[in-house]
Please model this.
Amino acid sequence: MKPSFQTKLRIIVLLMLIILVAQSAFIIHYINKIHYTYENDIHFIIKDRILTMEYIFLFIEIIIGIILLFYVPIILNKSFKPIENVFNEIERGKLDITIPEEFKKGPVSSLIHSTNIMLNNLKTFDNAKKVKIIENRNRLDLILKNSNDGVIIINDKFEIVLINNHAQKLFGISSTEGSPPLLGFHFEGEVLKYLEEAFSKKMLIPERKIYFPKIKKHITFRNGVTHDEEGRFSGMVIIITDIDLKKLYETITIDNVKSKQEH
Model:
């Protein structure tokens, strides 16, 4: 496991402290080896002053070294904490954030400024992406609404993510809110077999005609495969053609009238 940045910083401070202490100890050791006969000798006085200064410097070096050893990581943590909080929020998908003005001063002010610029760019990109998604979804809804075919879009979890009105009416699905989770809940018989076969193979399979008693007619099922950006299977599009829309909606109207009369 590689040491963290704080650990590396502490090692550097500790090495500098050891070098300075060793240097002072070396000077003190060799000065103490010099002997003078008379205490009033000028050289003895100089030696004494040098030793005194070295002891003072040694004490200061040890104190400063200990402070740096423990306090510098705390300063860095405090400086980087706002940036860490920002990236934690980004990880949760929240982009409507910024680093407060009071944190724009100090050792990482330029980094904080760059981070705020990055956040603004991310928000701009995210908003543009959302607008584009809404535009594409509205365009897709319009196409499906004006199509004479039934369309069902399934994701890789075998869940319906989109279904148009014709397919909804054909299978008697009253609502698609919340993306109905199981195709088996809505489909049965030959329809379910076709869908399960297409989904299990994750590839195009020959179209299949299936008889629907509701409109007393065979209708055709075709499938298309969708992939994500990395080329992995992401779902299927089921196209249902040859639907007699007039008969389909006439049948629904008759069924609704009978249901009201019974009640």
Q: What stands out?
A: The first strand starts at residue 150 and ends at 155.
